[in-house]
Specification:
The protein is α+β, with helices and mostly antiparallel strands. The protein has three domains: about 70 residues, Helix Hairpins; about 90 residues, Immunoglobulins (Immunoglobulin-like), CATH 2.60.40; about 40 residues. Helix content is about 50%, strand content about 25%. The strands form two sheets. The protein has a five-stranded mixed beta sheet with strand order 2-8-7-4-5, with no helix packed on it. Strands 1-3-6 form a three-stranded antiparallel beta sheet, with no helix packed on it. The longest helix is centred in the C-terminal third of the chain and has 36 residues. This is DnaJ domain-containing protein. One of its GO terms (cellular component) is cytoplasm.
């Protein structure tokens, strides 16, 4: 069951005025017209609207509270929340790069990823980095909460900005790595032993050729002398 109080970022005893303020703030933040009709923001906007419509109505809020508390008592785990997995496919990137994010939690009924907002307890999402901070960092924070025992665990991922100069150096880095590998594992053709064996083989071929040539000359001379 959805937690409307969490959607609006208010407590369960929030006043109607608090709910209105939270709704105005979040509806402006997530409005599709201000976010290029991004699907993620559109979904968050609908969730905020849904939560507001229920909680601002006294009768609907009372009915919701009764159902929500009953469900929470029946299904909530009393174990502390745990983040089993939280990682991205890149830890170094440039502005505009697409990042894929993965996460998996246990015993958590509320999961929030900053800067995106509420998410499923397990899932993945893709996004593009629009900017880094002044130190060239982009940080993601995963908050996994078990509201039954009021426990939250947090895990972070920091993506570092990759400068243009660093990208230009990548082929040179690969070349240096290849050179190092060759130093540790030299090719057979560059081995001194191989070169020595090759010279010895050439010498033997030369000697054999000379011997055969001398034998041929002697044979010819023998036949010439035989004629006289």
């Amino acid at each position: 069951m959805k937690n409307y109080y969490y959607f609006l970022g208010v407590s369960e005893d929030a006043s109607a005025e608090d709910i209105k303020k939270a709704y105005r703030k979040l509806s402006m933040k997530y409005h599709p017209d201000k976010n290029d009709n991004d699907e993620f923001f559109e979904l968050r906007f609908r969730e905020v609207q849904e939560a507001y419509e229920v909680l601002i109505d006294v009768d609907r809020r009372k009915s919701y509270d009764n159902q929500f508390n009953s469900v929470q008592r029946n299904i909530k785990s009393t174990l502390p929340p745990k983040i089993q997995k939280f990682h991205s496919d890149k830890i170094r990137a440039r502005v505009g790069d697409e990042i894929r994010l993965y996460w998996q939690t246990y015993d958590a009924d509320l999961v929030k990823i900053i800067p995106f907002g509420l998410e499923k307890v397990n899932g993945e999402r893709r996004f593009k980095i629009t900017q880094f901070d002044s130190q060239g960092k982009f940080q993601l924070l995963l908050h996994a909460t078990n509201t039954a025992i009021h426990k939250t665990v947090v895990q972070a991922i920091t993506i570092t900005q990759l400068e243009v100069g660093e990208l230009d150096e990548e082929p040179q880095v690969k070349e240096r790595l290849n050179n190092r590998r060759e130093e540790h594992h030299p090719r057979p053709t560059s081995s001194p032993l191989f070169r020595r064996d090759k010279r010895f083989l050439a010498y033997r071929i030369k000697v054999v050729t000379i011997v055969l040539l001398i034998a041929f000359i002697l044979l010819v001379l023998k036949k010439v002398f035989a004629l006289f």
